[in-house]
């Protein structure tokens, strides 16, 4: 058994299947994932110092629940929808659509979504989503990766200091909150999956 199969991800535990049905299941999960990403981009919760969206939480949880392959594919599917002009991103259509939006100030974060989901999915396939402490580390590293991509892109547009002040520093507290939420949610989801498996 390979390392990636030693710890099945949450989607395999909750919706086990094999053969050709795997492709249909994964297609359904990818659509559900992109819908969740779209909703999370549109909903804003009043927060300090900037409004809170749950999108990075959804991005990283998709990675951890789906594994790195399906998680990455789902994020790429989401970006493809945006590239085609669908209003799936935060601030669309008011702030633009399609590739023009994606190459604007948020472009680095969008690329970071893919990297963060892939990394968290890779860690989840090694059991990191089953332990609260490891979940906290995985989510934290995933958030750092997203912010790093966003900062590098913004730095090219506005300079390093301005990019940090506007694109990284305001999100520290929100990142802690979303990481804490994942620390609670993922182990609970695994307990439910294990109970379902035992009952079956």
Task: Explain what you see.
The chain starts with a helix and ends with a helix. Helix content is 73%, strand content 0%. The chain has helices at 3-6, 10-14, 21-42, 55-83, 98-102, 107-124, 132-158, 160-167, 172-199. It is an all-alpha fold. α4 crosses α6, α6 (107-124) runs antiparallel to α7 and α7 (132-158) crosses α8 (160-167). It has one domain (3-199): Orthogonal Bundle (Arp2/3 complex 21 kDa subunit ARPC3). The protein is globular, with a radius of gyration of 17 Å. It has 9 helices and no strands.
- On the 0-100 scale, what is the average pLDDT? 91
Output the structural class.
mainly alpha
Determine the CATH topology.
Answer: Arp2/3 complex 21 kDa subunit ARPC3
Uncertain residue ranges: 1-5
Do you know the CATH architecture? Orthogonal Bundle
The proportion of strand residues reads: under 5%
Q: Which overall shape is indicated by the principal axes computed on the Cα atoms?
A: globular
Largest sheet: none
Name of the level-1 CATH class: Mainly Alpha
Report the span from N to C terminus: 24 Å
Radius of gyration: 17 Å
Residues in helix, %: over 70%
> SSE order, as H and E?
HHHHHHHHH
Number of domains: 1
Count of helical segments? 9
């Amino acid at each position: 058994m390979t390392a990636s199969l030693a710890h099945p991800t949450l989607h395999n535990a909750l919706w086990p299947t094999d053969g050709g049905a795997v492709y249909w299941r994964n297609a359904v999960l990818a659509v559900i994932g992109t819908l969740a990403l779209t909703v999370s981009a549109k909903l804003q919760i009043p927060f300090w110092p900037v409004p809170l969206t749950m999108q990075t939480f959804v991005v990283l949880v998709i990675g951890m629940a789906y594994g790195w392959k399906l998680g990455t594919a789902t994020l790429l599917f989401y970006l493809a929808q945006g590239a085609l002009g669908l209003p799936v991103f935060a601030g669309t259509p008011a702030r633009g659509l399609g590739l023009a939006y994606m190459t604007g100030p948020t472009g680095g974060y969008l690329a970071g979504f893919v990297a963060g989901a892939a990394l968290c999915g890779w860690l989840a396939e090694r059991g990191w989503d089953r332990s609260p402490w490891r979940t906290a580390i995985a989510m934290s590293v995933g958030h750092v990766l997203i912010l790093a991509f966003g900062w590098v892109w913004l730095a090219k547009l506005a300079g390093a200091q301005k990019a940090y002040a506007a694109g990284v520093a305001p999100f520290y507290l929100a990142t802690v909150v979303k990481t804490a939420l994942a620390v609670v949610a993922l182990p609970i989801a695994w307990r439910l999956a294990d109970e379902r498996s035992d009952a079956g």
